[in-house]
Amino acid sequence: MTARGISHTKELLSRGEISAVEHVQAVLTAIRERDTLGAFVTAAGDEALRAAEQADARIRERGREAWWDMPLLGVTVSVKDLLQTRDLPTTRGSLLPNDRPRADAPAVARLRAAGAVVVGKTTTSEYGWSASTVSRVAPPTRNPYDPRLTAGGSSGGAAAAVAAGLCEGSLGTDGSGSIRIPAAFCGVVGYKPSYGRVPYFANGAERLAHQGPIARSVADVTLLGQIVSGPHPGDPDSGLGSLDTPRDNRRLRIGWIEYEGTTDGIRRATAQARSVLAAQGHRVEDIEVRCNDLYPALVDLLAASEAAGTSAEDEQWCDPGRLEVVRYGRTLSGAAVMRAEGVRQELRRTLRSVMDRYDLLAMATVPVEPFAAGAIGPAWAADPRDLQWLSWAPASYPFNMTGQPAVSLPAGLTASGLPAGVQLVGPVGADDLVLTVAGRLEADLAPLPQPPAAAPGSAAVSAAVPAAVPAALAERTL
Predict the structure, then answer these.
(1) What is the Cα gyration radius of the chain?
(2) Which pLDDT does position 454 carry in this prediction?
(3) Active site residue 94
C-alpha cells in the first residue's frame, strides 16, 4: 500500500488490518523502486523498521490507547534534507561532504517522540536557495500531476513525496515560500507557522527561515504542527509556545489580494475558494498592500546570508545559480543590508496596520502555474544572473519577512489540469485561526483528483522521468 492520510493509517493499524512493519516496509519499497519524481535523496533503513517493530509491540499491548500519548505511532514521515537526522546523512542538496549529525533537529526529535517513523530525506535545492528543487546532488524533483514540470521548492521533494503517497507527512523549511510554493504546485497542504513557533537552528544570518509540515489535509498539518511547535532552549526565538487549535470560526473580515501577473488559469481556480469563503459568511474584500523596494530588499537579505555562510573554498562545490547569489552578496555593504532590514521593518508595520482592519488575508499562493522541471523559475526569471529567482512568487516571501502564519491548500485545477493553491494568512501568533478557517474552507472545496504519480508503477510517469538518484551518487546518498 502507499501512504494516505494520518487518520486513515492510524485506523488501519488500530484495527489490525496492517502492521506498522508491513506499512513501513511497503513505503520504503515504494521509495526505493517507484520514486520516479525524485522526491527522495535518501531512504531510511533498519532504524525505520526497528521503530515500526516498537510501534507494533505498543499497539498489541495497549490497543487504541497506544495513540493517546504518541499520536503519530506507526505513521510515516519524511524530513527535508536541510534538517539534521541522527541516522541519515544530511547533504543539504550540496556536493560538500555529507553531515552525519549525532542528534536530530528539535522538530525531528519531537516527531519521533510522538511515534512517527522517519522513512527518508527529501530532495532540496542547495541549502534551500531556490524555489525550484534543482541541485547537483540529484535530478530535479518533478510534479506529480505532470512530470515534465517542477514540483516547486525548495521543499519540492517533501510536497512530491506526500502527493505521491510515499509518506503521510513531511517536515519542510520555508525561507521565502519553500513550503507553500511546492504545496500549491503539487496539490497538497503546506503550513508555515508564525516565526518562533517551531524551533529552528538556522545557519544563515537572516531571520526569515521557518519550519513546518506538508501533508494531504489541514487536519494532518495541524496535528504535525502541534507536535513540532513549542519553545526550545537552543533557539532563543522559539518563544511563541505550542500550537493550540481549534479556534472559534466567527464571521471574519478577509482581505483578498490579487497580485499583478496572476494567470487566468490560477485566477479561475482560486475564485472558487473566494466564493466558498463568502458563502460561509465571511466578508471578503479586495485590498492592495504596497511596500516599496520589497523584492530588492529580500534579495539583499538572502544574498548577504548566503555569502556569510559560504567560504571561497566552498565555491567549487556550489550550484551555479546559488553562486551568483553568493557573489552578489559579497558586494553588499553593511549599510545596504541595514537598508534592506529597514524595508522589512516597514513591511511589518504596514501589515500590522492591515491586520488591525482584517482578521485574515487570502490570495492565490502562487500566481503562475508550474514551469519546466530543471528551471529555477518561469522563462523570464530563469537566468540566475538577473537575481529574479523568487520574483515570480510575490505572495509567499512577504510573510517570511513579517513572520506571519500562512497555510496553502488546494483550490482546484487549472484548465491544463495543474493544481492551484489558495493561501490564508493571519496575524503573528494567530496560527490557530488560520488553520481553523483553512480546515473549514477545505471541507467545502471539491477534493483534487489523485495525481498520476500516486498510482505506483505508472507506466507514463516511469517512462517520462529518470531514476531518482544518479548512479555516481547512489553509494554516497543511499
Answers:
(1) 21
(2) 72
(3) no
Q: Distance (Å, rounded) from C-alpha 313 to C-alpha 431? A: 42
How far apart CA 191 and CA 222 sit, in angstroms, is 8
Residue 273 CA: distances (Å) to CA of 33, 44, 285, 347? 37, 38, 13, 26
Exactly one of 10, 19, 80, 192 is catalytic; which is it? Answer: 80
Is residue 178 annotated as a catalytic residue, yes or no? yes
Q: What is the pLDDT of residues 281-300, one digit of tens each?
A: 999 999 999 898 999 999 99
> DSSP secondary structure string, 38-100?
--EEEE--HHHHHHHHHHHHHHHHHGGGGGSS-TTTT-EEEEETTS-BTTB-B-TT-SSPPB-
What band does 3 get if pLDDT is binned at 50, 70 and 90?
A: low
Distance CA 270, CA 365 (A): 9
What is the average per-residue pLDDT within 149-175?
Answer: 98
Residue of 178, 229, 305, 391 marked active site: 178
Q: DSSP strand E in 126-194: where?
A: 142-143, 146-150, 169-174, 189-192
Identity of the amino acid at 375: A
Active-site residue, 154 included: yes
Q: Do β-strands 189-192 and 253-256 pair in parallel, antiparallel, or remain unpaired?
A: unpaired
Closest to 41 (Cα-Cα) out of 33, 50, 31, 51 = 31
Residue 249: predicted pLDDT: 65
The pLDDT tens digits for 83-124 are 999 999 999 999 987 667 779 999 999 999 999 999 999 999
For residue 274, which of 261, 260, 288, 286 has the smallest C-alpha distance? 286
How much is the pTM?
0.94
Catalytic residue among 19, 125, 154, 217: 154
